[in-house]
Amino acid sequence: MKRDELDIILQEGEGYKIEFKENISGLDKEIVSFANASGGKIIIGISDDGKCKGIDVTNKLKSQIQDIANNCNPKPEIFIEKIDNIVIVDVKEGNDKPYQCPSGFYKRIGANSQKMTRNEIQELFKSEGKIRFDELIAKDFNYNRDFDHDKLRKFIELASITNYQKTDVILSSLYVLQKRDKKMLLNNAGVLFFAKKPQQFIPWSIFTVVLYKDNGGIYINDRKDISGSLIDIVDQVMDFVRLYTKVAYKFTGMPQRINIYEYPLEAIREAVINSVMHRDYFEHGHNNILKFFPNRIEIENVWSKPTNFKLGKTIFRRNQIIADLFTRIHYAEKLGSGIGRIKEYCKKENAPLPKISYTDTHFYIVFKPSNEYIRLTMTENKQNDAFETWEKTTQKTTQKTTQKIIKLISNNPYITRKELAEIVGITEDGIKYQLNIMQKKGLIKRLGPKKGGYWQIIDNNIENNE
Description:
By secondary structure, the chain is of the alpha+beta class. It is about 40% helix and about 20% strand.
């Protein structure tokens, strides 16, 4: 930092990324508050009102500042600068939040550093992935009463596991079981896959599906709250989609016809898997929803946007164990390529790529009917109706253009094609085409040379000639 930059900062005063301090007292809380936020600069030797008091800048002082940072947990990244008798401590935004000093956790709010509450610390841990819902032990789950061995057998079959071990051994290998004092404790991932009634412990894991009668989503034809294990939920949501997805038949001359579905089912299935795999299960107030409209399918997913998220580039797994369990049964890929796979399925089915949008709390994906289905379901009558509509529209447009040209020629027989094009609002080639048609129909006639000639109107009665 240069002296003139410092002078400007002193004039502007403290802010979200600037803190003034006369000495190093309480420096640790300022360092962690900046590390927990977006980074910032602590300028030592300056009073709160921006007056330059100065400080004795020695190697000992610099070592003390570094020791203060080293005593924070984890250690924040800082850089120390000196300008005259002023010290600038540049604190970088932390890559391993949350940061803590001996007196606690702090965050930057406006121009102040404030100690975080228990809930704020918990939220920061969650947002940084330090606390994962699927890894937390389900306290009320009783293994002897609530575990479903049939669901485990189904999982083993889907995962193609042939070397079957004892139940506790295989559950431990799946990272869903801990044994404490001879008790079998399942985490939330284990409950969502293997409990008899998962929603008894995690009621908000329900997936809602709705069939709307209208595109605006006002009138409902069918609605279900789907429960069960996450495998059951994926399968039942897709059963609902298949039930209401229309199908067309393509005949290729072979004995067996080809089914062309209204929507790319594999792409939608991938999106449903992603929605249960990456949802924010800490959020209790809203279900994941699939909305089936007459002209589209929308999936609304409860999530928490990852830090520095870039669609299609950021690979993240909010629920590591849940994602791993889906991978083991071949419902998902390890590389987190869900969006890419969805797009590939759409291309394969000649369907439009889905429209994707998101906020900090929700992720939306919208599917449109496939182009091949639309083409096949346009019957000959519909095609004829469409052609007749197009033909009538074209005739009306042509008639209005002809009327306009005749009126302009009446007012100025020497008007040029370029002038007609500018006034009528079509290209010169379009005017040339219109004039040729009008001459063939005997509406107008060209007299004199090409350059310097003029137009003569022969018949004004356009309607009888169209």
